[in-house]
Structures are given as structure tokens and as C-alpha cells.
Amino acid sequence: MPLLELRNLYKAFGGLQAISNVSLTVNEGEIVSIIGPNGAGKSTLFNLITGVYKPDRGDIIFEGERINGLTPDKVTRKGIARTFQNLRLFTHLTVLENVLIPQHHRLKSGWLAAVLRTPAYLKEEEEMRKTALEKLSFFGPRLMSFRLHQPVYVLSYANRRRTEMARAMATGAKLLLLDEPSAGMNPKETKEITQIIRRFRDEGGYTIVLVEHKMNLVGEISDRVVVLDYGEKIAEGDYKDVVNDPKVIEAYLGR
Ligand code: ADP
Ligand code: MG
């Protein structure tokens, strides 16, 4: 059984067909990249999977269960987390606090226990902190340093991206959807994040779908590449085959 299956998805905005008959399966432990020119529908596809938009037609199946129509919050609870092309962090909270927040929805103790700081709550809080630090440690000293306690607004753009990735992991997700994880990163940082994403899979046990423009990153880590153009899937397969596909070359040159 695939971890995620998209079956003949459609989504229009007014007269614009943003996603058209897209089917895709993602198996557990895979790293799948979605590429395509600007406006191809990549972010829309993530928004459909995560419940931000409802598909006009088609189904989204996660671990054998149909999830279309669920709210984003419920989709996260099912085990799908994402990062955004435009980051969505609480900029006045610290790095560590940002990574702690998404775990609160899994607390067993109620709000009263939290206010009273009961032993059961304190134990859960300690567990949450451990989880947060474990996820942040993927990024090494870039985040595991004095920066843990800095508000996000003082961080570099690259460190904000890293914090957002750690936050997505801390939700308890199995599947991570990363929207342009290397955006705003220089070549050295991009190389580093490429290795780290691979470690998310190899050491963290995550399955990963990413949208990315930097082809060296895509070529290096993808088990499979899917190409969208004008909302349609125009190619899928091995990185080398896909980038040499005349349809794909035309899609990029045609814009
Ligand atoms: P990509 O991420 O591949 O660059 P998007 O998925 O963001 O592309 O957008 C696909 C198309 O859908 C674009 O033409 C975009 O303008 C349009 N679109 C995306 N979201 C909306 C929306 N909420 N309302 C109207 N049009 C949208
Ligand atoms: Mg996009």
C-alpha cells in the first residue's frame, strides 16, 4: 500500500485550471520531487494534500484512508506536515518555542493540568522538549546553539527555513511536504540542506515530497521526479530521464 496516493485530482480557481487530472503515488521511505515552471500548480498540489483547498474532483488517500475534505489541522494529525514557500513562523517566539508549539495538539493533559503544572503535565512537557531538540539537532550548530533561545525575527532567512523544517518534523508527521526548502540559501547552504533532507529520510524515517527549483538538489536526492506544467503531470521518473524528456525541456523553454 502506498503511503500517499493522489487519484485524478482537479482544482480550478475561477476559469484557471490549476491542477488537472493529477495522479501520483508516494511509497513509504521515498523522496519524491515535484518540479515545473512557475505557476505550474506545485504549491496548489501541496494545498490540496494538506486540506487548505478541497479538490473539485479526485481523491487523496493517506495510509489507505481518504482524507480529502479534512481541515489542515486534521490532516496534520493524520501525519502529514509541511513547510511553506513563504515561511509561517511566530517571529516573536524563539526557535525552540516555535518547534514546541505544534506538539501541543498531542498533549494528553488538559489546559488545567498545564496551568497547574501537574506532574503528568511536566512529564509531557519534558518529552516535548526532547522531541523538539531531537528535530533541531538535524541542523547542527546552525540552530543547536545560543540561537535556540533567540526570537525568530533576528535569524537569517536560511535559519528560518531550517526552523520551519524542524517544526514540521515535530508535529509527529510521517510525511513531510517541503515547499522550496533551499529558497534563499547560498550554494554551500543548499548542499548542506540536501544532505540534511536525505538524513530526514535515512535517520528520521520520514517520507518526503518536495517542490524545488534548484536542479542540483533535485538530482542529488530524488528517488523519483514528477513534472507539472499548466496543472498537468507531463513527466515522471528518474531525474536523468525526466530532464532529458523533450516535453519537459519545452515546458521550461516555453515560459
Ligand atoms: P507553483 O507553485 O507551481 O508556482 P501555484 O500552485 O502557486 O504554482 O499556482 C498555480 C496557478 O494557480 C497559478 O496560475 C496561480 O496564479 C493560481 N492560483 C494559486 N492559488 C490561487 C488562489 N488561491 N486563487 C487564484 N489563483 C490561484
Ligand atoms: Mg509555488
Low-confidence stretches: none
Series of secondary-structure elements, N-terminal to C-terminal: EEEHEEHEHHHHEHEHEEHH
- State the end-to-end CA separation: 37 Å
Number of domains: 2
In this entry the ligands are: adenosine-5'-diphosphate, magnesium ion
**Helical segment count:** 10
Portion in strands = 15-25%
Q: What's the layout of helices and strands?
A:
Elements: E1 4-13, E2 16-26, E3 31-35, H1 42-49, E4 57-62, E5 65-66, H2 72-78, E6 80-82, H3 95-100, H4 111-116, H5 119-136, H6 157-170, E7 175-179, H7 187-202, E8 207-211, H8 215-221, E9 224-229, E10 232-237, H9 239-243, H10 246-253
Parallel strand pairs: 3-8, 3-9, 6-7, 7-8
Antiparallel strand pairs: 1-2, 1-4, 4-5, 9-10
Helix pairs in contact: 5-6
Bound molecules: adenosine-5'-diphosphate and magnesium ion (MG).
